[in-house]
Amino acid sequence: MNRILVIDDDIELCELLNDYLTGEGFSVETINNGKQGADQALANEYVLVVLDVMLPELNGFDVLRKIRESSKVPVIMLTARGDDIDRIVGLELGADDYLPKPFNPRELVARIRAIQRRVETTELSSTSAQKGTELKVGDLILCSSNRTVKRGSENIDLTSVEFNLLEVLLSRAGEVISRDDLVEKVLGRRLSAYDRSIDVHVSALRKKLGHFDGNMERIRTIRGIGYLYSLAESGT
Question: Where are the alpha helices (H) located in 6-98, listed in sequence order?
Fold first, then answer.
């Protein structure tokens, strides 16, 4: 199955993406209305949804909320160039990635391929993981076999990207991990200029995990390099 759903009210863009993505081996369906797009996304199986922010009836954020109520299908948001708020909101609501308009269709294909690789790697890891495989760091318990995270006895609800990000950070707790490495390991692609998506995912993850006792940050920013998951006991 290689079906992609494009939800965008720009008919010319939909036609362009249909032609280009079809040439790349995808089966493409296009919807020009937010409400219809949400219904279509939930009624059928797709490998990915390309979702514009500005849509009639339901905007892209409301469509994404509706999709995330019952589906984990990967979503790439299309945002206005330079509109950081749209990107942040989209990623925090569970979008897997974003592209600012206008964009090169080749870049969209690269993002789609990256998400596919990540999904395949995640499924392979989940299949091969032994039941009960856990990663414990401080008060956090991450179980890779059923992709759950607990802080003490409390379940923490994470998106697929946030889970993968936390897994990488916890596996190397106390070490600095560069943004380049995180983008490659978590998003399945190379870091490009002005790409802040991994930073937004880190920010969303911080909010969900909260601070250590004493208000110490769990995920520290190492300026100019990347991020580090702190070891509370040592203050690292």
Answer: 11-23, 34-43, 60-68, 84-92
pLDDT tens column, 138-160: 899 999 888 899 998 899 999 88
Q: Are 186 and 164 in contact (CB under 8 A)?
A: yes
Structure tokens at 203: 């920010």
What's 130's DSSP letter?
P
Name which of 50, 30, 43, 148 is nearest 90 in CA terms.
Answer: 50
Residue 220 C-beta-side C-alpha neighbours within 13 Å: 16
Q: Do residues 98 and 77 make contact, with C-beta atoms less than 8 angstroms apart?
A: yes
Question: Which tokens belong to 66?
Answer: 């509706």
Residue 172, CA distances (Å) to 60, 66, 128, 175, 212 in order: 36, 35, 21, 6, 18
| Strands 176-178 vs 148-151: parallel, antiparallel or unpaired | unpaired
Helix axes 34-43, 60-68, angle to 10 degrees: 20
pTM for this entry: 0.78
Higher-scoring residue by pLDDT: 159, 3: 3
- What are 50's two structure tokens? 């390309």
Please give the Cα distance from 91 to 75 (Å, whole number): 10
- Tell me the average pLDDT across 222-231: 93
Taking the C-alpha atoms of residue 69 and residue 85, their distance in angstroms, rounded to an integer, is 22
| Cα 18 from Cα 13, distance rounded (Å) | 8
